[in-house]
Amino acid sequence: MNSYKLKIITPEKIFFDGEVTQIVVRTSEGNAGFLSGHIDYVSNVVSGPLKVRETDEKKYRTAALSDGIIIVSGGDITILPEAAEWSDEIDLARAERAKKVAEEKIKSSKKSDSEFDMAQVKLKRALARISVYNQTHSEH
Amino acid sequence: MASANIKDVKRRIKSVESTMQITKAMELVASSKLRRAKERAAQSQPYFNTLYSTMKNIANDSGFKGIVTDLKERHALVIAIAGDRGLAGGFNHNVLKLSLERIKALESEGFKVSVMPVGKKAVEFFHRYNYPVYMEFMQVAETITAYDCIELSEQLVKKYTRGEFGAIELCYTTFVNTLSQVAKSVRVLPLSFDEQTEDKDDKQKDENGGKGYKAEVLYDPSPEEVFKLLLPKYVAGIYYGAVVDSYAAEQAARRTAMESASDNAQEMIDNLSLLYNRARQAQITQELTEIVSGSIKNSD
Questions:
Q1: Mean pLDDT of residues grouped by 10 in chain B (300 residues)?
Q2: In terms of CATH architecture, what is B2-31+256-299?
Q3: What is this structure's pTM?
Q4: How far is A43 from chain B (nearest CA, A)?
């Protein structure tokens, strides 16, 4: 399979930079797979799993992404998520804690809309982490 | 009298010395903080640069329509970023003076202006002048993360797209090099990219004129939706960049100020030691004269 360059950049660091043959990412319209030679394309990425198949590898590596965008330009792909973690680096306890905090905020939210939205985003992020963690750890 | 003088001078030397110790220490702290601030600014550069170029492409895309509700309300927000502490030369004063100028300019354009001071010195300043403060932040610059900025800018952008703020400006100090820091102001919103100003009219012209573009990019679900997601992150990028930049500039300014303070202290110590030595010499000479004249008397 042909490969292409994938870059995943978060505000903190360059999370991934290398050759891949296929990725599957969750966009606002649903999961979307990308092979090499994709036309120029830009879409919103929502919190969820990202699957990456690197060259010469049969298995996918999985990471949890939080919202951002994916940019396909000239065959290369750049993803700009707010945060990214490989499945084996996910701190489940922390994600559970974040989930709890976000849920409580949403329940007690007679506060402003913006706080509600923020909590919702955080909840989604935590859920994405937890589901990615559970998926990959049940496979083994 | 001479001995009293000597004591005084000695005490002054001591006090200047201990002041110099403090300024030296502050200088060292500032230079190590400066290094860290520069690293921090470089870290998030790739993320925000890519965001910026994508936004620019969308804004220049032929299919793109603006997402901003028309602004009937002439309300502007000025974000003024200064330091949390003084003793940094003209650092705080320069940037606050500039933001005051910008506020006056916006007011003369007919805007109602609110300020968002960042940094303790800025907060104190605008409270003293009784400006309407929208939000205020203190002690944030050292530990600010890109995520904090994204949360904040989501609120700001929401206000902007609803038309509650017609314009957002940012006043901060940019780090040119270790010796020079310049206060400057940038217009955050409405957007203006290098090639063209993205006002409504400009876009209208573009749609009708249809300039030549490179390969069409497919936006999913639409350029507007992508843009909506990008805008707060882009504003966060500018804001984060400015806070970190200003922090670096503050450290550089403090370093320079403390360096010259240490130099001045050294000079003062030199002068005082000269004075001290002279006084001491005079005292010795006088004592000698007294002894000699005493012995002359005795031998007589």
A1: 74 93 93 88 81 81 66 79 86 91 88 89 88 84 81 84 83 86 84 51 41 63 82 86 88 91 94 91 92 83
A2: Orthogonal Bundle (1.10)
A3: 0.76
A4: 5
